[in-house]
Design brief:
about 350 residues, alpha/beta, Quinone Oxidoreductase, Chain A, domain 1, Rossmann fold, 2 domains, six-stranded parallel sheet, ER, Zn_alcohol_dh, oxidoreductase activity
Length: about 350
């Protein structure tokens, strides 16, 4: 398939503007494979990009970094993440974060913080298209029992695995997750997989809190009805051992700091507000560890993919909605308008 061949793609043209266009199929570099996209999830960071509020995303751009499909083109030296040779027809999910593996951060074990990192769908054309070019070493063979839609969720689950790892939880610890969107819910999945039983989830959506209950949250708090900090103290006097803020608003970041025990861990993964005032003296006097969580390491992605193959997520229920790529522009508009009841939308491409 040559570089002059064309494909259909959902192209972001500027704030609140997306349309289907015909564009060139990506040209493969050495070590890359061409993936015919089957399913691609819409990420919260892409919603901010759609609104023109994300400085990393520049129009015109084909977004899409949560995806899975099948290999239809192979360059030289293409081996998959498990070391096997890439073969046409292989179903794969992929890690969209490309690191140089040579800078100081990569060599120190933080390839997610690579000085030259690139993200498919941000710095290069993404998966809201018929085809996407991906380094073969970032591709994971999808087993027959795993649906393509769930395989596409490897990436957001890996983000959540990273946040839970940074929270430094033990099975006997208590965890508060602020926000029951996809990342918050996936943090619940990751924590439960590690054996953490005492997990509290708060949100303003009753339907999302219902999902959290079904997925194993010991307690859910509807913030429209109950005060989070008061509820934490009633149920776990003294505070929780760790908090993950999957919202990132000024109010939720302040809540996270106040809800954790002295000496506890707070992980910020939500990116709602660019800057937030924090009670710095309180942080110092309580020796609270504050961590940012960005993306994932290859080990985090490996674990996320393993959890998916073990059945950590199921398609049953109303949390997942599937639409066609042609409906993508409408899906983005409805998501930012709050008109979607599902927690996650997957776009089916081919």
């Amino acid at each position: 398939m040559g570089s002059t061949a064309s494909m259909e793609a959902l192209v972001w043209l500027g704030p609140r503007t997306m349309e289907m266009q015909t564009t060139a199929i990506p040209h493969l570099q050495a070590g890359e494979v061409l993936v015919e996209v089957a399913a691609a999830g819409i990420c919260g960071s892409e919603l901010s990009g759609y609104l023109g509020q994300n400085s990393l995303r520049k129009p015109p751009l084909i977004m899409g970094h949560e995806a899975a499909g099948r290999i239809v083109g192979i360059s030289a030296e293409a081996r998959l993440r498990d070391g096997s040779s890439a073969k046409e027809g292989d179903r794969v999910a992929f890690n969209p974060l490309i690191s140089c593996l040579q800078c100081d951060r990569c060599l120190a074990g933080f390839p997610n913080l690579c000085r030259q990192r690139q993200l498919i769908g941000v710095h290069r054309p993404g998966a809201f298209a018929s085809f996407v070019a991906v380094p073969a070493a970032l591709c994971y063979p999808v087993p027959a029992m795993l649906s393509t839609s769930l395989a596409a969720l490897s990436e957001p689950l890996a983000c959540s695995v990273r946040a839970v790892a940074l929270a430094q939880l033990q099975p006997e610890h208590s965890l508060l997750i602020i926000g029951a969107g996809p990342i918050g819910l996936f943090c619940l999945v990751a924590a439960r997989a590690l054996g953490v039983k005492r997990v509290m989830v708060c949100d303003m959506s009753a339907s999302r809190l219902s999902i959290a209950q079904r997925w194993g949250a010991q307690e859910v708090v509807n913030v429209r009805e109950r005060d989070v900090l008061t509820t934490v103290q009633q149920l776990i006097p003294g505070g929780v051992e760790a908090v993950i803020d999957a919202v990132g608003a000024d109010a939720t970041r302040a809540q996270a700091v106040q809800a954790v025990v002295p000496g506890g861990n707070v992980v910020f993964i939500g990116l709602h507000d660019e800057a937030s005032p924090l009670a710095a003296n309180y942080l110092i006097r309580q020796e609270i560890t504050l961590r940012g969580s960005f993306a994932y390491t290859p080990a985090d992605f490996d674990l996320a993919f393993e959890l998916l193959t073990q059945g950590a997520l199921q398609e049953e229920g109303d949390w997942l909605e599937e639409r066609s790529l042609a409906e993508g522009a409408k899906a983005f508009a409805q998501l930012v308008a709050g008109e979607v009841t599902a927690t996650k939308i997957i776009l089916h491409v081919n």
